[in-house]
């Protein structure tokens, strides 16, 4: 772990699979368990030069007794994991990729112990664990985030990200130019930054699946079957009929609205450029509607 001490800033890096990665913050050193230290705010510095080219400072509230979130220090290391010990499954959920449904489904008590036996990094590099993550086409995902956060009744996120609760789609898209892609709210941050850093080499350790309305039920069902898991939430959250909604509060039908929303080639160009890392990480081709927009 990286820590600032009286003797200076000491950095320890571990080399795993060709990646220089800061040693995990998640295991709390024994001296830190004292009540006084647990209640204190420790200011840590972590080096993110291997990922984002700069060092970042963060404050970690140890009074909560929760694991140290690595993403508080390194903006490119976002991790949202659900672990189920018996089938040794670790699922990474990403905002605006069906995460509400996945969290509801995998939080069903009958699925077993969901407490991680070790740090998430140790599990990622353990071949006996199955690591799964779903991703989404970036143009559709950005539109879905905009429709949910800037066209719903509650628009707090719209103000946080775009500065106004009346932000138009054109304004939201053009605001991406010049912005730090690693510093956005998780609903709009590139998917390559998630799961500990899929775009920095961790993708090879995950079974990655594209989430689309037409195939979501089959793919999620296959994941549960491979892990020998069964939950009554599955049929409700991923219904057989494509028109049924699994999570009404987060359903935006962005997949069906994308062609009309991205009729302007300028919008396609800005969003694709901003999320270029996702297209490379997941080896995605441009949707046909985006190609048509760029050719006209």
> Helical segment tally?
12
First-residue to last-residue Cα separation: 52 Å
Task: Compute the average pLDDT.
Answer: 75
Q: Could you give the order of strands across the largest sheet?
A: 7-8-9-10
Number of extended strands: 10
Q: Report the helical percentage.
A: 25-40%
Largest sheet: 4 strands, mixed
Fraction of residues in β-strands: 15-25%
How would you describe what is shown here?
The protein has 296 residues and is of the alpha/beta class. The chain has helices at residues 35-39, 99-106, 120-124, 138-150, 156-162, 169-174, 216-226, 233-237, 254-261, 265-274, 276-281, 288-295, and strands at residues 3-5, 8-10, 13-16, 19-22, 41-47, 55-61, 81-84, 89-92, 130-135, 207-210. The protein has a 4-stranded mixed β-sheet. A two-stranded antiparallel sheet has the order 1-2. Strands 3-4 form a two-stranded antiparallel sheet. Strand 7 and strand 8 form a beta hairpin. Helix 4 crosses helix 9 (254-261) and helix 10 (265-274) packs across helix 12 (288-295). Mean pLDDT is 75; it is low at 1-76.
């Amino acid at each position: 772990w990286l820590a600032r001490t009286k003797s200076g800033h000491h950095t320890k890096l571990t080399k795993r699979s060709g990646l220089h990665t800061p040693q995990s913050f998640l295991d709390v050193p024994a001296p830190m368990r004292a009540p006084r230290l647990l209640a204190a705010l420790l200011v840590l510095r972590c080096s993110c030069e291997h990922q984002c080219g700069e060092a970042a400072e963060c404050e970690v509230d140890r009074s909560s007794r929760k694991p140290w979130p690595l993403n508080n220090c390194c903006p490119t290391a976002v991790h949202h994991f659900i672990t189920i010990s018996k089938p040794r499954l670790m699922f990474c959920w990403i905002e605006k990729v069906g995460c509400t449904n996945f969290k509801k489904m995998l939080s069903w008590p009958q699925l077993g112990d969901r407490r991680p036996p070790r740090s998430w990094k140790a599990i990622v590099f353990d071949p006996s664990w199955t690591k799964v993550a779903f991703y989404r086409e970036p143009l559709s995902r950005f539109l879905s985030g905009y429709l949910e956060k800037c066209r719903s009744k509650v628009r707090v996120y719209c103000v946080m990200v775009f500065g106004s609760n009346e932000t138009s789609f054109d304004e939201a898209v053009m605001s991406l130019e010049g912005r730090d892609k690693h510093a956005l709210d998780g609903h709009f941050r590139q998917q390559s930054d998630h799961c500990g850093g899929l775009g920095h080499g961790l993708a090879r350790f995950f079974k990655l699946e594209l989430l689309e309305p037409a195939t979501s039920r089959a793919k999620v069902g296959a994941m549960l079957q491979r892990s020998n898991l069964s939950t009554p939430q599955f049929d409700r959250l991923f219904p057989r009929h494509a028109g049924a909604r699994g999570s009404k509060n987060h359903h935006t039908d962005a997949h069906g609205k994308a062609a009309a929303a991205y009729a302007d080639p300028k919008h396609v160009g800005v969003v694709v450029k901003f999320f270029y890392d996702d297209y490379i990480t997941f080896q995605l081709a441009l949707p046909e509607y985006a190609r048509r927009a760029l050719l006209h």
